[in-house]
Amino acid sequence: MTRRRNERALVRPHVVTGGRAHPTRNVFDLVTLVIFNGDLPRHAGGTTPQTPRQPLSTAGLSPEKLRIIELCRGGALSVVEIAGHLGLPVGVTKVLLSDLVDDGHLTTRAGSADGRQSRVRLLQEVLDGLRARL
Amino acid sequence: MDSALASDTPYLRETVRTALKILVVGHFAVGKTTFVGTLSEIRPLRTEERMTQAGALVDDLAGIEDKTTTTVAMDFGRLTLSDSLVLYLFGAPGQQRFTRLWDDLARGALGALVLVDTARLKQSFEIMDLVERQGLPYAVAVNHFDASPRFPDAEVREALDLAPGTPLVSCDARDRRSSTQALISLVDHLLTLDPETP
Ligand SMILES: Nc1nc2c(ncn2[C@@H]2O[C@H](COP(=O)(O)OP(=O)(O)OP(=O)(O)O)[C@@H](O)[C@H]2O)c(=O)[nH]1
Ligand SMILES: [Mg+2]
């Protein structure tokens, strides 16, 4: 599993999508939320809320990817938290995460919202949240 | 199969849908780490970005051992602001040579809080240039160290060449209330920059 990196990897689009159809490597932001996909219905038919999550096969994954999956199994975290908890550089973490998203182990939730209207509303929500802490 | 790691990890609420970031910037030892630590609901984490000498980010595991790369540390913390909204604070290093890291940090960020120390105002010039070049809206917070001189706001504004609308507040990065207030000033400012929607 050797990789060759190039400049392209450094150009990342602004908007984060969780699309699996495209390589996701370039769309991770520091605060993109990452969610474990263990109970995807498309495998292990008949997953019910009572049965434990059933992950895709992790056979053949690198130790680093296994650690990421183990961490993400517990709940949602941002990209930078995953890097921090596992002691991995952010750039490396993004590449590993994008592979895991492409493979269907993980999914992402877009972080920051675009568009003027939602931005004002967001800022107001931030303000309310901060004031509530005083 | 809960590992010790997973059970100690402060995961996000399942209802969180939006994650935002604000940068906390400033020159060496101005109080960035203290500020982030004071406000964070999680034990602040520290992470590293590897860069080549040319300033490119290293995103290859193999690159980690490479002696020609330098490591830039940044700390970050988290504040849950509502059931659906979480805010990350990043304490960012102020050197120009980390431009690539800065691009990554600044992309999508709401804005920056620039911490300054009145005893070392000059040291803030570089970081303010960086923030402005990134096009990030910002507020300035004077972090009061006991030994630092107190200047009238007008003098600090002039020294830092602040635009009239840029908030200038004072704060104690060790105090939660004071630090929260500084963030509020920034977000208030961001709201005035956004044209009201009809
Ligand atoms: N009196 C006073 N001391 C502070 C304040 N904020 C931070 N300090 C102290 O200043 C020192 C430096 O603070 P840090 O938070 O480590 O500063 P930093 O900007 O993260 O430093 P670097 O990451 O090394 O650039 C520490 O000893 C803090 O305890 C403040 O508001 N008032
Ligand atoms: Mg620090």
From TrEMBL, chain A:
SUPFAM superfamilies: Winged helix' DNA-binding domain (SSF46785). Gene3D superfamilies: Winged helix-like DNA-binding domain superfamily/Winged helix DNA-binding domain. Transmembrane segments: none annotated. This is DUF742 domain-containing protein. It comes from the Bacteria. It comes from Actinomadura livida. Pfam families: DUF742.
UniProtKB/TrEMBL annotation, chain B:
CDD domains: Ras_like_GTPase. InterPro entries: Gliding_Motility_GTPase, Gpn, P-loop_NTPase. Keywords: GTP-binding, Hydrolase, Nucleotide-binding, Receptor. Coiled coil: none annotated. It holds the Pfam family ATP_bind_1. The keyword Hydrolase applies. GO terms for molecular function: GTP binding; hydrolase activity. The keyword Acyltransferase does not apply. Belongs to the GPN-loop GTPase family. PANTHER family: ATP/GTP-BINDING PROTEIN-RELATED, GLIDING MOTILITY PROTEIN MGLA. This is ATP/GTP-binding protein. It comes from Actinomadura livida.
